[in-house]
Design a protein that fits this description.
This protein is of the alpha/beta class and 151 residues long. Helix content is 34%, strand content 24%. The chain has one domain: Glutaredoxin (3-Layer(aba) Sandwich), CATH 3.40.30.10.
């Protein structure tokens, strides 16, 4: 089960494709954002999801909402993935799975990320959540609908 709507999102710090550590409370201070957890770079579903976020980035930027992707892949793999698909957002490396676990996005026995997308409000409370392992493109559609509802 994902974190519930209204829950305060756990603060965290993880290595980022920007070359520095990303800290939620500092890098997104006072800003809403989408944090999406996904299983693995370069797999068909994860590639489709990342490219769909990329293709809809204008919508999210219009509401000043940043996108952040998190998987257990390392930074070199993330950098290749980001470059190959021209992703205009940061990818974070949760190689230990600790943050994914805090966000209820880790499959315990497999130690692989589930596909969960969180919309956090400006105070980093969960405003919306969409959890569905298959149908990666539905995550973007669900977030767009949630944002439209609040405007």
């Amino acid at each position: 089960m994902a974190l519930k709507v209204g829950t305060q999102a756990p603060d965290f710090s993880l290595p980022s494709t920007s070359g520095k550590d990303f800290k939620l409370s500092e890098d997104m201070a006072g800003k809403p954002c989408i944090i999406y957890f996904y299983p693995k770079d370069f797999t068909p579903g994860c590639t489709a999801e990342a490219c769909d976020f990329r293709d809809n980035i204008g919508f999210f930027k219009g509401f000043d909402i940043d996108i952040i992707g998190v998987s257990r892949d390392d930074i070199p793999t993330h950098l290749k993935f980001k470059e190959e698909y021209q992703l205009p957002f940061e990818l974070l490396a949760d190689t230990s799975g600790k943050i994914s676990e805090q966000y209820k996005a880790l499959i315990p026995l497999l130690r692989l990320n589930k596909r969960i997308t969180y919309l956090l409000d400006a105070s980093h409370k969960v405003a919306a959540v969409y959890e569905q392992m298959f149908g990666a493109k539905q995550h973007i559609k669900a977030m767009i609908e949630e944002i439209k509802k609040t405007q």
